[in-house]
Amino acid sequence: MNDDSIAKKRFIKRFPQTQSDKDLAPLTAYGIGGAADLYIQAHHMLDIPEIIQQAHELHIPYYLLGGGRNIVFSDKGFRGLIIHNKAMSIAVRENKITAESGAMLAQVLAEARKHKLGGIMKMVGLPGTIGGALYGNAGAQGVEIGDFVTKATLFDYQNGVHTENSDYFQFSYRTSILKKTHETVLSVTLTLPPLDPHDVTPEIITFRAKKQPKGKVAGSFFKNPSPDKPAGMLIDKAGLKGLRRGDITVSLMHGNWLINEGNGTQKELIELAKHIKETVHHMFDVTLQPENILLDERGNKIDI
Ligand SMILES: Cc1cc2nc3c(=O)[nH]c(=O)nc-3n(C[C@H](O)[C@H](O)[C@H](O)COP(=O)(O)OP(=O)(O)OC[C@H]3O[C@@H](n4cnc5c(N)ncnc54)[C@H](O)[C@@H]3O)c2cc1C
């Protein structure tokens, strides 16, 4: 038995609920990805540091999965441990909501409405967890999660559990400091204004149903290079809607959305995305950058 297998056995002994060879595809929006060597669910935020510490000590690579709405695992899966964040409790105190990072943004919005708090309602229908939203400063219709974050409790192996205020996160368009520090978000506190009835218009509620492609999709594949040059418009102008690689196509409804129409693979998705990127660069001298996160089997980000 090699060192890897011994470490994995030790991990399973410590956390017997761990699953082996877990198929990752069903856990992601595109339905893409092979199997993870090890997979564990964390149901309480303080389970996460314990799991990470153990993985660290046993030299087992790990990756935190939220809602899987922005992630594309390798067709070969993941050689290590996937920690699936299912820590979901939410508490509301006056105008502040504190949520464990595995709470779905939808749950947070529902709690806000229940307590007559608003501000974030334009994000209605935005899939994924509050932790995932913080990591990528998710947003919609001119509003971003970073606009409302007061503080968040983080964990990393060197510094342990620590709480940081909003400024720390350096939020900007679809990014935060967490993309560099790789700290794990355990909980998030949002400070919200009172609910304004105009926050939840019928247009906001039906926007996604009318404007967004259905099926195995993960939102915008590329970031918008600038507000006046949305990636979807450039892809449309380049005549790339409907283009296909294997089972992956460019949506006819929205050029920046890719769809897995069957058993598409990460390889096909990357081939298609590279072709889009090259064509848009050639035609408009604009370099598109992916918003979806592509991972290799070691958990490294794949740049296209
Ligand atoms: C139909 C559809 C529509 C979408 N529309 C939008 C939109 O309008 N605007 C928008 O911004 N996005 C949109 N997205 C993308 C997606 O919803 C967001 O990126 C979302 O914030 C991802 O959250 P998640 O929990 O699924 O993250 P995951 O996909 O699970 O993970 C994404 C990254 O965040 C990291 N991460 C997750 N949780 C934590 C944590 N607790 N601590 C540290 N890192 C963490 C992961 O390790 C990974 O690197 C859409 C996706 C879909 C499927």
Summary tags:
four-stranded mixed sheet; 304 residues; 3 domains; alpha+beta; Uridine Diphospho-n-acetylenolpyruvylglucosamine Reductase, domain 2; binds flavin-adenine dinucleotide; five-stranded antiparallel sheet; single chain; Uridine Diphospho-n-acetylenolpyruvylglucosamine Reductase, domain 3; Uridine Diphospho-n-acetylenolpyruvylglucosamine Reductase, domain 1
Characterization of this structure:
The chain is α+β, with helices and mostly antiparallel strands. It has 3 domains: 3-85, Uridine Diphospho-n-acetylenolpyruvylglucosamine Reductase, domain 2; 90-198, Uridine Diphospho-n-acetylenolpyruvylglucosamine Reductase, domain 3 (2-Layer Sandwich); 212-294, UDP-N-acetylenolpyruvoylglucosamine reductase, C-terminal domain (Uridine Diphospho-n-acetylenolpyruvylglucosamine Reductase, domain 1, Alpha-Beta Complex), CATH 3.90.78. The chain has 8 helices and 17 strands. A 5-stranded antiparallel sheet has the order 6-7-12-10-11. It has a 4-stranded mixed sheet with strand order 1-2-5-3, with helices on one face. The protein starts with a helix and ends in a 10-residue tail after the last strand. The mean pLDDT is 96. Bound molecules: flavin-adenine dinucleotide. The site of flavin-adenine dinucleotide (FAD) has 31 residues, from β3, α4, β8 and β12.
